[in-house]
Amino acid sequence: MSDSPHDSEPGRVPSGDDPVIEGNVDDMAEESYEIPPFEPPADYAFEPELVGAAPRPIPDRIHEGSWARKQRLTVQWLAFAGGLSGLLSTIPQVRAAGVYFLPLLYLDWIAIALLAIAAVAWLWNRFGNTPMRYIERGTPHVGRVLGLVKQPSQIINGQTTQFNFTALVDFLHPETGEHMTAEIVSSDFSADARHKFDTSFRVGDYVTLVYYPEDVESSLRLYGFLDLAPDLGLIRVGKPTTFLELAAATVIVTAILGLLIWNVYALECFEPLEYAWTDFWLPMVIGAVVFGVGFVGYFVHQYRKELREQNQRNLEAFHAGRAVEIGHSAFFAQTGFINRCIQLLVVVALPFMGGLIGVVLGFSANGLGDDGPPTTRPVKILELYEESHAYIVRQYYAEYNIKDDPDGPQNKRKLYTSPEHLLMLAGDGPFEAIIRPGRFGFPWVETLQPVGDPATSPGPSALETGSP
Hints:
- The chain is of the alpha+beta class.
- It has three domains: 5-49 and 135-236, no CATH class; 272-368, no CATH class; 375-465.
- The protein has helices spanning 26-30, 66-89, 92-97, 107-127, 133-137, 216-219, 243-269, 281-320, 337-368, 419-425, 462-465, and strands at residues 21-22, 139-156, 159-172, 179-185, 189-190, 197-199, 206-211, 221-222, 234-236, 375-389, 393-402, 413-416, 431-436, 444-450.
């Protein structure tokens, strides 16, 4: 005889020994069971926080429940992100970068918005119509779990991203006494972490339902699915995410974005006049290893770790007679021609991108560490441009020819600069290029200026100095 409720013999309701089905709640409706009489145990007791006349106080232990912890973590993250945005908005180099990457110009407003949202979220958690109102003024009622399914709740582009539990419960209507059934869903959780979630009750268990007396039908909830009481209802196996982990992840993501923005800027402003990619083979190799092989190795390590954990869970489930888990949601576990092509592309693309980042950082070191004497060459300004891309990225650059160009006098070069500098280059000229020898011997154009002008105009060095 199978342990699945779907294979249960007629004449019994599935018992608490039956496993949770991972599938679709409609499967439960297709089976017909002869449901035993609804007879809650005589000693069944409601949770202590639901006992007594309304309004009831919120016990301290409820503030350690999953719902309260999530709301607290959300408010803390919003406040941290707002503070981080406000701090970044005070850094001159960041504000100067806002001329080119427009969202950085509004970091102060972004900070105010995030802090305002954090304040509103805190007020709503404290005074709003939250699930905690069920403790304060809800009415407890006893029900029974007839079916329990772990199923997808959100699918994006054919990929399951969220799961939840759906419980089929029966109960006696609080007002009419009629025997009724209802499907009640839990909160969502990540598809990748679905094996880490379970329920504290099983099929056949009697459980607590809660409702508002003024609206029984639409307010009826399974108390365990409100995520209020610790270790009741939806249970996560393992340590939950902490604020420090979330803050660290935010800082890391911000640093990566800053690195990418800097790479775009450095590629435009520090590219040498003449070089071969092999000249920067060392930073290329370092970048490919750190950013490419490192990320691929991390993904493979996570996949193998999750696979070992899944095999261990299945071994325990097999010996206990429970359902085993098949399939795997990890990136490198996906099969099929398209998925394998994508995996191969990632394996190749990440080291390539890491190598490119390494080369650009080499350009940066060659320019930022340059303390050699500048030289000048005559140039001819061809065009001046100001371009915006998706109202996010804005570029200011001059197109010019340089005399005695290694690639020929007709070679068109670009100098990415600032709006003020473009206005200066709009004059009659003549103009000259200020060329630095480079820290590692690779000359690069620092700026363009009128011939004989001793003052260097605000140009590519704006991000270095923080000048607007």
